[in-house]
Design a protein that fits this description.
Elements lengths: L12 H13 L3 H7 L18 H11 L1 H10 L8 H8 L10 H12 L3 H4 L2 E2 L5 E2 L3 E7 L5 E7 L3 H22 L1 H6 L1 H16 L1 H14 L6 E2 L12 E5 L3 E3 L5 H5 L3 H19 L1 E3 L7 E4 L5 E3 L5 E3 L2 H15 L3 H10 L2 E2 L5 H16 L8 H14 L2 E2 L2 H20 L5 H20 L2 H30 L12 H31 L7 E2 L2 E2 H30 L1
Parallel strand pairs: 5-10
Antiparallel strand pairs: 1-3, 2-3, 3-4, 4-6, 7-9, 8-11, 9-10, 12-13, 14-15
Helix pairs in contact: 1-2, 3-4, 3-5, 4-10, 8-10, 13-14, 13-18, 13-19, 14-15, 14-19, 15-16, 16-17, 17-18, 21-22
């Protein structure tokens, strides 16, 4: 057995043991031994000879706690690392743990709000309506009568997660430096992304801001409900928002499905998310069925838990729009080009293989006989094809694939006949058409006219300045080149050649004109001076041509 990795800290014995069991059970016993983690196993923790299933991995990550639940959710966007079956299992990953005592809830709420819980709320239910590893939710009523949901962060969770990252950091660094899989997937970078995501989720003020922004962006989508936060009752560890009466989409039975307009709701949901991604550049990156509620009136869908948000720049949104349209039309080469615009090329980048893979995927999208193939799965396969051809797709593309996959899962529950590809193609075309019309709308034209007016106002003054400099012989052109002397020498050579050419042309023309003038001095029966000028011009011209050709050839070789 290899010696344990010297950077491992025995303080985190339990975490190393859990991680070692995970590697051994799911088919990486050699890797666990190389890192030295097998020293932390007991005799009954031997390798499991049965091939691990994706659901087992998700269950094991849930059991290991919030850090590994979030790790699994992040891995669900990495089709370059895991098979599709694992991605689908991890995308449904949710943690549900026993609630912590109400005494702790009361203490945290009073510390954060700075007042007694009985004064802040007219009523506060002791039994939570939901409990997860990061926090739990209680129903309450404000003094104004407004019914709210209060999310309270689990005590000590930030310290626990910090310790998990301290334990995993040396492991990720070792894998990156000493294994091929680490060098390929850069686990330290993956860990940094995970740390950033979790720290954002641990600050409930960030989620409150996301809820408010999302509600403003989706105001036109009347069938969707976004619970608004109560700012005065929201802090880093306490989030108070509107209480939504309803149930999770996953809890809807067959009878309830017959009583709702599922196709309308799913269509609205898809269009809302496409608007988030392609127009607003701010979208909820984790819309799994557990985060989507069917309201009590069965006429609306409520989006909750805005902890995981992805932001897209306007330029990236425009590129994503073109990518979606290219894929839907089966234009693989165009789609590959747009994907490259959003991605990073590795040293082993294979342009031909990358384009071919995208062309195949685009044909699958357009194929009428693609069966149960999901559009979200196409994005996941796109990521895998990119990894195989030396391309690291942008974070926006990874989250887009996961988001569409989750939306399709919701569509399967609410409306089995709903066609996600058709909805995406139709709405993407609508957004593109809207962008074109926006470019010629009156306000945009007025803006462009104002910019042109500004240019025209400044133009006369700048022309006067240039003419004044020319008149005073002070006009200068500064050229930032690698070798100014060499550049000026080249200009002189060009000028000399033009001058010699003009002189030779004048001599030839003069000789031609003198041919008709009678002279006592003749050569070969023609005026002698004309023949001399012509001969001189031919000799000098021939020499100049030979010199130019020789220098050009020599310079090219050099």
């Amino acid at each position: 057995m290899n010696r344990p990795f010297k950077a491992l800290n025995p303080t985190y014995f339990k975490r190393y043991r859990d991680f070692a069991r995970l590697l051994v059970k799911h088919g990486e016993p050699d890797l666990a031994e190389r890192i030295g983690l097998t020293n932390y196993l007991s005799d009954e923790d031997g390798p499991d000879t049965t091939q691990a299933r994706a659901e087992d991995l998700a269950a094991d990550l849930e059991e290991m706690g919030p850090t590994f639940v979030k790790l699994g959710q992040l891995l669900s966007t990495r089709a370059d690392m895991l098979p599709i079956e694992y991605l689908e299992a991890l995308s449904r990953l949710q943690d549900s743990v026993a609630p912590f005592p109400f005494a702790e809830v009361e203490r945290i709420v009073e510390e954060e709000l700075g007042t007694k819980i009985k004064k802040a709320f007219a009523d506060f239910e002791a039994t939570p309506i939901a409990s997860a590893s990061l926090g739990q939710v209680h129903r309450a009523t404000l003094p104004s009568g407004r019914v709210v949901a209060v999310k309270v962060q689990r005590p000590g969770i930030e310290e626990e997660i910090t310790q998990d990252f301290e334990a995993m950091a040396p492991l990720a660094e070792f894998l990156d430096k000493h294994t091929d899989v680490g060098a390929k997937y850069e686990f330290s970078g993956l860990l940094d992304d995970l740390r950033t995501s979790i720290l954002r989720e641990l600050d409930y003020r960030e989620e409150a801001a996301s809820l408010k922004t999302m509600a403003e962006n989706l105001a036109d989508h009347t069938r969707l409900v976004i619970p608004l936060p109560v700012q005065d009752y929201t802090t880093t560890r306490v989030l108070t928002m509107d209480y939504v009466r309803g149930r999770k989409v996953t809890a809807i039975g067959p009878l309830a499905q017959c009583e709702i307009h599922g196709d309308r709701l799913v269509s609205e949901l898809f269009h809302a998310y496409l608007d988030q991604i392609l127009i607003h550049g701010f979208f909820h990156a984790d819309p799994h069925p557990g985060n989507v509620f069917l309201t009590e009136d069965r006429e609306h869908l409520a989006l909750i838990d805005m902890g995981m948000i992805c932001q897209v720049t306007p330029a990236a949104s425009a590129t994503l729009l073109k990518l979606l349209l290219s894929l839907s039309e089966g234009l693989g080469e165009e789609a590959a080009g747009y994907a490259l615009d959003l991605s990073t090329r590795k040293p082993d980048f294979d342009h031909g293989g990358f384009t071919t893979a995208f062309s195949t995927l685009a044909l699958d999208v357009r194929s009428a006989g693609m069966g149960d193939q999901k559009f979200g799965a196409i994005f996941l396969m796109m990521q895998k094809a990119a990894a195989e051809n030396g391309v690291r797709l942008a974070r926006e593309l990874r989250f887009l694939g996961k988001t569409i996959l989750n939306l399709e899962a919701i569509g399967d529950v609410l409306a089995e006949d709903f066609d996600p590809q058709k909805a995406i193609r139709k709405h993407a075309t609508k957004v593109m058409r809207g962008n074109v019309f926006d470019a010629v709308r009156p306000t945009q034209l007025l803006k462009q006219a104002a910019e042109m007016k500004e240019v025209m106002e400044r133009l006369p003054r700048r022309l006067n300045q240039i003419l004044d400099l020319l008149t005073e012989n002070q006009f200068r052109i500064n050229i930032d080149a690698l070798d100014e002397d060499r550049l000026m020498h080249g200009f002189e050579k060009v000028a000399n050649r033009i001058t010699v050419g003009l002189v030779l042309a004048a001599m030839i023309i003069g000789a031609a004109l003198m041919m008709n003038i009678e002279s006592s001095f003749t050569l070969f029966g023609y005026p002698g001076l004309a023949i001399v000028l012509l001969a001189f011009a031919l000799v000098i011209g021939g020499s100049l041509v030979i010199t130019i050709v020789w220098n050009d050839i020599y310079g090219q070789r050099r």
